[in-house]
Amino acid sequence: MSGGTEAAPDGGLRCPWGLSTEDYLVYHDTEWGRPVHGDDALFERLCLEAFQSGLSWLTILRRREGFRSAFAGFKIPAVAEFTDADKDRLLADEGIIRNRAKVEATLANAKVLAEWSTGELDELIWSHAPDAGSRPAPRTVQDVPAITPESTALSKDLKKRGLRFIGPTTAYALMQACGLVDDHLADCVARGGAWSSSPAA
After folding, report:
1. Structural domain boundaries of the chain?
2. How far is C-alpha 29 from the geometric centre of its chain's CA atoms?
């Protein structure tokens, strides 16, 4: 395989990872690489990327509503108030990934972030976005890095501020998902947020 874009059922070229399932196609076309702002929204992505570590993103994507229900919609003040009883509830919840270290990190991170000023998480994360055009558009999946100097710096910054389970690879996945970088392949219809309609029609 070339690792370049491939035609979807509608004829449009897509990043090849987005064609394996309908779930991925919708996520690829409507979410991945689009700018995400807001502390709670970014906290959700931070948490889900941490839970994804070592697993397929599809596993997380298909449980996202379960995660949202279990973690109070990822509202930072609400999750920061979770108790040991809530932790036990989460570890018994089949709608999420029941990994003790990841659950504990999510609760600990919420407590840290609850002490931050409104907008502080958003500002910190986006301060690590590279300059637009600082890297050529990837032409194949082999051109897409797993880690960058910016993601390493973001990871270090978040860890220094007390956050857990956010290594450089997870930080870069966050940057990709939340639009800090546009890693849609050069020929992909979704590059630059150009694709706006759902492919599910």
Report:
1. 37-118+144-185
2. 15
Per-residue pLDDT of the chain (201 residues; tens, 9 = 90+): 478 999 999 999 999 999 999 999 999 999 999 999 999 999 999 999 999 999 999 999 999 999 999 999 999 999 999 999 999 999 999 999 999 999 999 999 999 999 999 999 999 999 999 998 789 999 999 999 999 999 999 999 999 999 999 999 999 999 999 999 999 999 999 998 765 443 332
Contacts of 144 (CB under 8 A, 6+ apart): 138, 183
In sequence order, what are the residues at sequence separation of 6 or more whose Cβ sits closer than 8 angstroms to the Cβ of residue 23? 58, 61, 62
Provide CATH code, domain 37-118+144-185.
1.10.340.30
Query: Could you list the active site residues?
Result: 27, 49, 57
> Could you tell me if 175 and 128 are in contact, meaning their C-beta atoms sit under 8 angstroms apart?
yes
In terms of Cα–Cα distance, which of 113, 118, 104, 99 is closest to 158? 113
- Given a contact cutoff of 8 angstroms between Cβ atoms, the answer to whether 98 and 90 are in contact is yes
What tokens appear for 32 in the block? 């991945």
